[in-house]
Amino acid sequence: MKQFHNFINGVFVPTSKTFEKRTPISNQVIGLAHEAGQAEVDAAVKAARAALNGEWGKMSVVKRVEMLYAVADEINHRFDEFLEAELADTGKPHSLASHIDIPRGAANFKVFADIIKNAPTESFTMTTPDGGTAVSYGLRTPLGVIGVVCPWNLPLLLMTWKVGPALACGNAVVVKPSEETPATATLLGEVMNKVGIPKGVYNVVHGFGPNSAGEFLTRHPDVDAITFTGETRTGEAIMAAAAKGVRPVSFELGGKNAGIVFADADFDKAIAGITRSTFENCGQVCLGTERVYVQRPIFDKFVAALKEKAESLKIGPPNEPGVGLGPLISAEHKEKVMAYYAKARAEGAKVVTGGGAPDMKGEYAQGHWVQPTIWTGLPESSPIIREEIFGPCCHIAPFDTEEEAIALANDTPYGLATTVWTSDLSTAHRMASAIKVGLCWINSWFLRDLRTAFGGSKASGIGREGGVHSLEFYTDLRNVMIKL
Ligand code: NAD
Description:
By secondary structure, the chain is α/β, with parallel strands linked by helices. The protein has two domains: 276 residues, Aldehyde Dehydrogenase, Chain A, domain 1, CATH 3.40.605; 193 residues, Aldehyde Dehydrogenase, Chain A, domain 2 (3-Layer(aba) Sandwich). It has 16 helices and 23 strands. The protein has a seven-stranded mixed sheet, with helices on both faces. Strand 6 and strand 7 form a beta hairpin. Helix 10 crosses helix 11. The radius of gyration is 23 Å and the shape is globular. The site of nicotinamide-adenine-dinucleotide (NAD) has 32 residues, from helix 8 and helix 9. The site of nicotinamide-adenine-dinucleotide has 32 residues, from helix 8 and helix 9.
């Protein structure tokens, strides 16, 4: 049985309190995670602080950048181990994790190493009131000890998306991975030791949220800032914890994203795009599309074509060839998604396809599988259209005018992402400026340039990460003024 230990000060640390990690494909126990208590969290924060005061804090940017490149190279060197760990934890298709999770997880270290190496700061020269001269310049200093709290849907990718820039900027981190996905964060500890990252720079504490490692970390008075990806209501709890000591937060939260398809769109590309944005990773992508609005002339044709795509998705375990849909992450999450499937029926939705759980055989019978599901016919006030389900499902509704589509897309407390399909350039630009989101994709979805800003508007987040925007959060910008 695998043991997922905490990683504190360069050492793997077991505890007496363990919890089971079950694989979503069969619900079998595949490992035991060692829950960190207050003492382990204290030790991890102390180790991080000591690293900042030691070799790491004094290291040149050039050397730091070299080390982060070595981290990325070592992840790639152990690619198959990371891949197997991620597949076992999440059950997602091999094709997905091998193309996105692991390579992007490694790339996050190189991208931010390059950015910090090339980041300029401002400088001004001015005349002083006495006729003399003064020069001022900006100095980027590390924020300090960063608490990194992560979700389970893209475990390595979303964790390194924060750890990469945090370390590039010279901080030390204490990571709290999701209790559902302890493996890759633990494995990264081995990588850090192998390439010689000083002890205490990267720490991992396992456990849950309230009254466990998550809360102990975010309430810890010696944590200087918190970066979090997860549900909006967890963000509210973490923000309350961070209020003590007015510590900065960076939040990437939930969404209820609209996909908008105009009648002039390239139909096949729009269908392929919405198929991905609705069903990829079994709908467990924060940027996914759970509300689809289609212009009336192509509505029926669109619903029929998306139904065909949904029904052609092969459901199965990660390594089975041709699989496009894995399981949901846990029994608890399946219960939540199935409750929404039942609610849609109760509210009078037309179930275009799906709406239940597939009949899986043998060892997979106990896995957390659900059918890809499409509904039509619900009012916009329905919880199916207002609440984040985080499953492989969408509701499709018709619209007539551009103004109507904008109003529908914006009628939500969330503001994470949207995907718009049109062949009219002017429509595209107008939609991009009218829809209140952090990320607007036109004729694409989940297409990312890591140098660009990433984050959510409204209840979908606070701040932006990515490119130089990550530097804004992970460094403290000091102004130095010199009177000559
Ligand atoms: P979650 O909020 O339940 O948990 C996320 C992490 O927070 C876990 O590590 C959990 O243990 C920890 N946590 C929970 N309560 C806590 C507390 N009170 N104090 C400190 N830590 C606590 O989210 P999840 O179910 O793991 O992930 C799914 C959610 O994440 C969805 O809402 C999804 O939209 C969102 N998400 C957003 C983005 C984005 O970039 N905006 C990306 C991925 C996922």
